[in-house]
Amino acid sequence: MSGRLFSQMLDGVTCGDCIDVMNHMPAGCVDFVLTDPPYLVRYRDRSGRTVANDDDDAWLAPAFRAMYHVLRNDALCVSFYGWTRADAFLTAARAAGFRAAGHIVFRKRYASGVRFLRYEHEQAYLFAKGDPPLPMAPPSDVIDNWRYTGNRLHPTQKPVGILQPLIEAFTPSGAIVMDPFCGSGSTLIAARDAGRRFIGIELDPDHHATSVRRLHGTRALSAAA
Ligand SMILES: C[S@@+](CC[C@H](N)C(=O)[O-])C[C@H]1O[C@@H](n2cnc3c(N)ncnc32)[C@H](O)[C@@H]1O
Fold this sequence. Notes:
The chain is an alpha/beta fold.
């Protein structure tokens, strides 16, 4: 990929398979990855909406290899994951070269399901490539301010408010933040509002269109979270 093509991706969303796209990007071109890939749980909401690639883990190892390729040395990656497949996510990340540097629990004020337990949290790994410097103000690994988005823009839409503090803790102003599974663009809005550059990739053309619309809309629409 030429420098010109790469600069066209900056502060925008590319529609395509992120593995393909990332493998064509220059090595070490992003400063932080904050992503929310499919959880591998065959998710289906009440209205029948599903998530692409949520039923098949063939993309998992190549995606972590590609994220490792685009991330610069001595930098961090935060990846949400599905707890029923924690082993697969950890194995894929380690095989790519990442080291687990932390684990984040996002406490919700509602249960997303009730069976043996009331399922009231989401989770993400903090992965390190190389030896990143410690942040000036390390955030807690339990994050409490999860606000229900209503999933209006995406069936598994994350709240912008829980993403922005992670971006602020782990990157300096102007850094390039990438979300290769960006859905409706929540990470990109958080990065933009924190004064960072961003790169989004999304496979589904409808979600891609939503993220573009959101980025070009008013702050009220973009914060619809
Ligand atoms: C859990 S959702 C992300 C939701 C997002 N955090 C939000 O707030 O809207 C995962 C997204 O990854 C996309 N996806 C799945 N496989 C992909 C691939 N190979 N390349 C790019 N995007 C992919 C899905 O279409 C879905 O929108």
